[in-house]
Amino acid sequence: MTKPLLPRICITATGRTPAELFDCARRALGYSRLVELRLDWATNPAEALVTIPELSREARRVAGKNSQLLATCRRQANGGRFRGTISKQLEILEQAADLGCDLVDLEIESAEAAGDEKVARLRQAAALVLSFHDFERMPRLESWARRLRRFPADYYKLVGTATRQSDNSDALDFLTKVNGRGGEAGRWIAFCMGDTGIPSRILAVSRGSRFVYASCPPTPRLWRTGPPESNETNSPREPNEPAAPGQLDWETLRNRYRAEKLTRRTSLYGLVGCPVRHSIGAAIHNAAFQARGLDAVYLPLLVSDLKGFRKAAERYPLAGFSVTIPHKQGILRLVDKTDRTVRAAGAANTVRARRNRWEAINTDVEGIVAPLRKALRLRAREPLPAGFRAVIVGNGGAARAAVVALRELRCRAISITGRNPSKVARFTRELGCQALSFERLERERFDLLVHSTPVGMWPHTGECALRPEQINARVVFDLIYNPPETRLLELARARGCRTISGLDMFLAQAARQFGYWTGLEPPIRLMKRVALEELGRLTQRVT
Ligand code: NAP
Description:
Layout: E1 9-13, H1 18-29, E2 34-38, H2 45-48, H3 51-63, E3 68-72, H4 86-99, E4 103-107, H5 108-114, H6 116-125, E5 127-133, H7 141-149, E6 155-161, H8 165-180, E7 188-193, H9 198-203, E8 212-215, H10 250-256, E9 267-273, H11 281-291, E10 296-302, H12 309-315, E11 318-323, E12 337-338, H13 340-345, E13 350-354, E14 357-361, H14 363-375, E15 389-393, H15 397-408, E16 413-417, H16 421-431, E17 434-435, E18 446-451, E19 473-478, H17 487-494, E20 498-500, H18 502-518, H19 524-540
Parallel strand pairs: 1-2, 1-8, 2-3, 3-4, 4-5, 5-6, 6-7, 9-10, 9-11, 12-14, 15-16, 15-18, 16-17, 18-19, 19-20
Antiparallel strand pairs: 11-13, 13-14
Bound molecules: NADP nicotinamide-adenine-dinucleotide phosphate.
The site of NADP nicotinamide-adenine-dinucleotide phosphate (NAP) has 26 residues, from helix 14, helix 15 and helix 18.
């Protein structure tokens, strides 16, 4: 069987009825010439076969001769949804091939049970992708590879589930190795599932994976305003539901991460934290890299425990990364060098690797200083006027950065207020500020009020930590950036205050990160536009 010329991103089409599957696959063909039909997701997979002749014609019509349909009917025992026997599974796959599918996916467990002869017969009908999936952990790749190789196949697919970043490096190193073997180059597909495994999906093609899988991009009609109802998020009716944990949609994989264009020489950056998937950082930094013509990518690096992270990061290898909750303090144990802002704040949010040494800075501090200078019309190095009084609401990490930022601007009178007086007392003792009760906010007047709690963040946008009479400041700076316009800022403006949005902080700190990593001027206007677009998308999409 001659090998088909395959695109590098395969879109997985799903649907419970033949009509849903057809609709999803037809939309997918508008994006990619390679579409996987998950027959096992249909309530009746045998019935879903009727879609294939029409889809096959549609594929040739929309995508030309090089279009390919891949049929999968994975058994429930192996992570799919098909409840029938192995004989029935093989029968469905053979029929799919007869009706026009160019490739079929058969899992190794079924192949082993069916035996050489039946597998060889199936391979005569269509190109065979012989697969193994582990939905819980990372399998021993080399030993599963040996098991797969016992059957002649056109492609081998090996997929595990990442629980730590080193699992991604294992999959990527495996790809590099098998592609280095003459006869095997271009025949393997490997990556990790799960949110932790997303970097391996993005980088797999750069290390030689024949292709990777994506879901169909969401269509505007699937967006709605407001958060999903709790029982809706994983509705089986949702045609854009990823077919596997961690699967990205085609547009994100191709346009944001440039998965098809990355190479082994691409510089790797990312966001380290837990959670990271819904951060707008990836959209902003990847757009900035592209705008400056850099061969670099910014990855979501889900890390629940920093143990072993440095080794994993060096295997990628990461050129630099942002750090978010909960690792801004813990990361200090892994770095070799810190600057003044990190030491003052006791936390870092940006790291770069230089000659095997990790250097850390805290751009949150600059993210607060820069918009304040602008709003208060302070020239570079000009301090705040004597007697300037600031109050910070909240006593977490961002409040700490705000204290350091205000000290950089020579503010002497900094008060802290929060919901837990003993935590506030500890914070003020450590940082040398004044504690203030919530009630006193009504009676005092400040030059600046900085809000640093999550109250009012999307999706709870109607909430506000303060009552209008507690907002007594000339300038109000809400550190929340999603939404950029919070209820607090609305109330503050109604009381005649000047306001600063947390989005200004986010952009200022991201711009500083970009400069620190690349040495180039950040494309700030573009970063702002992308941030606003992404915030709009995040608050509209169902998942
Ligand atoms: P954090 O370390 O978890 O601290 C959160 C603070 O908010 C704590 O003092 C906490 O009080 C208080 N808090 C939480 N829920 C509250 C509630 N329902 N009512 C009153 N107080 C409440 O978080 P963080 O890193 O400081 O972040 C705080 C905010 O700043 C978040 O909205 C975050 O998105 C924003 N932020 C923005 C940027 C940016 O670039 N714009 C950067 C960093 C952070 P307890 O101590 O009593 O729990």
